Amino acid sequence: MAPTAVRVVDMSAEVEQIDTSVAPVVQAAGTLPWRVHKGELQVELIHRPRYRDWSWPKGKLDKAESRPVAAVRETAEETGRPVVLGVPLTGLQYLLADGTVKRAHYWAAQRAGADVPAVAARFPVPPVDPNEIDDRKWMTPEKALAKLSRPSDRLPLETLLDAHRTGTLATRPLIIVRHGKAVDRSRWSGDEATRPLTPFGSGQASALVQLLACYGVQQIVTSPWQRCVSTVEPFAAASGIPLTPLDNITERAHEQTAKSAFDATTALIEGNVGAVLCTHRPVLPTVFDALRQFARAHARRALPRSTPYLQPGACLVAQIADTSAGPRIVTVEKFKPQVW
């Protein structure tokens, strides 16, 4: 169904809630796959025979599926290749003729190489259905602008080109995770370091696996306290990435000196691989203070400044670009996978 109106959506900010009793919302997600081939930037388009159009790989979210997971899954289903997500791009909101709102979320994405173990944690996807996608082509952005069937699909490409021009398209992720829901302190008589997750918290840990697998993560750093280890252990087991316990980001170490957590976060920002850092709510202000030191203005404004900073089981994805001034955080997104 063709849209009757299109609105640009800033995916770096919270999108306003729509009364779904008046305007039902269909959420969709996809990517703009990109590469540098023989020194030239290229993007990948797909052709849908049913609609006879050229567009970006995208599709509707499955039940309880997060937007990044849907984007990665749909791209694999429609291009036949796994990708890892980079910076979020301009999204689109369509008002369809039947009154339904369709909101499409996009990310820049690159093919996942053999050096990205996180891909092993993903659910398998079926091969490309030729009845759905019968052609896909890499081309220059200039050719893509001309070939795209819908003018509105040029908007996320323009965002991608802006990032390329400013040297902020190639990024690596640093994902900050707050451990899942733990047994209440008042109900736990053992050592604080051994306080475990609740059954719901364990469900949050399982729900995080597919989200963390969307990114080019190669390192998992965690507080060695049980509730943090249990939160990222399912992803570590599914991806094969070993856990790196770090005493500096426990609550106890943070009470003694916040500098150790600040320095640990800084080291990950300045590192050269994508990473996950799992810690506790009292440590998060220091972690975000470290991120602020490297963040561009718009990303700095998106960093949480007040308690609880992140909900239990939620995460913040910071994309880091290597610039002439050093590593810079160029985008920030928050996600909380659903448990059902």
Automatic annotation (TrEMBL):
<dbReference type="GO" id="GO:0004081">
    <property type="term" value="F:bis(5'-nucleosyl)-tetraphosphatase (asymmetrical) activity"/>
</dbReference>
<dbReference type="InterPro" id="IPR029033">
    <property type="entry name" value="His_PPase_superfam"/>
</dbReference>
<dbReference type="InterPro" id="IPR015797">
    <property type="entry name" value="NUDIX_hydrolase-like_dom_sf"/>
</dbReference>
<dbReference type="GO" id="GO:0006167">
    <property type="term" value="P:AMP biosynthetic process"/>
</dbReference>
<protein>
    <submittedName>
        <fullName>8-oxo-dGTP diphosphatase</fullName>
    </submittedName>
</protein>
<dbReference type="InterPro" id="IPR000086">
    <property type="entry name" value="NUDIX_hydrolase_dom"/>
</dbReference>
<dbReference type="Pfam" id="PF00293">
    <property type="entry name" value="NUDIX"/>
</dbReference>
<keyword id="KW-0378">Hydrolase</keyword>
<dbReference type="InterPro" id="IPR020084">
    <property type="entry name" value="NUDIX_hydrolase_CS"/>
</dbReference>
<dbReference type="GO" id="GO:0006754">
    <property type="term" value="P:ATP biosynthetic process"/>
</dbReference>
<dbReference type="InterPro" id="IPR051325">
    <property type="entry name" value="Nudix_hydrolase_domain"/>
</dbReference>
<feature type="domain" description="Nudix hydrolase">
    <location>
        <begin position="24"/>
        <end position="162"/>
    </location>
</feature>
<dbReference type="Pfam" id="PF00300">
    <property type="entry name" value="His_Phos_1"/>
</dbReference>
<dbReference type="InterPro" id="IPR013078">
    <property type="entry name" value="His_Pase_superF_clade-1"/>
</dbReference>
